[in-house]
Design goal:
There is one protein chain. The protein has 75 residues and is mainly β. The protein has a single domain, classed as OB fold (Dihydrolipoamide Acetyltransferase, E2P) (Beta Barrel). Helix content is 0%, strand content 39%. The chain has no helices and 5 strands. A 5-stranded antiparallel beta sheet has the order 3-2-1-4-5, with no helix packed on it. It is globular, with a radius of gyration of 12 Å.
Length: 75
């Protein structure tokens, strides 16, 4: 799933991600950044994520153009 970081508090690790598909807001799971390149997020940052069974955003990772399904420039 792809979306945008709406809020993130680096002190507590709490935040909200908004899904591109339906504009639904998902609270970050406490383990959302584990195993990720991210240590913090910023408002407006584009990310890929998954949802846990409770609807919380988890497995936050950076979205490359290929991951996000965007056309890539061929040289």
């Amino acid at each position: 799933m792809q979306g945008v970081v709406r809020t993130f508090d680096p002190r507590t690790g709490e935040g909200v991600v908004m899904s591109d598909a339906d504009r639904a807001e998902h609270v970050l799971a406490t383990t959302a950044l584990e195993g990720s390149l991210f240590r913090a997020l910023r408002q407006g940052q584009r990310v890929n994520f998954e949802l846990d069974p409770d609807g919380r955003a988890t497995r936050i990772r950076i979205g490359s153009e290929r991951d996000m399904g965007l056309p890539t420039a061929e040289v």
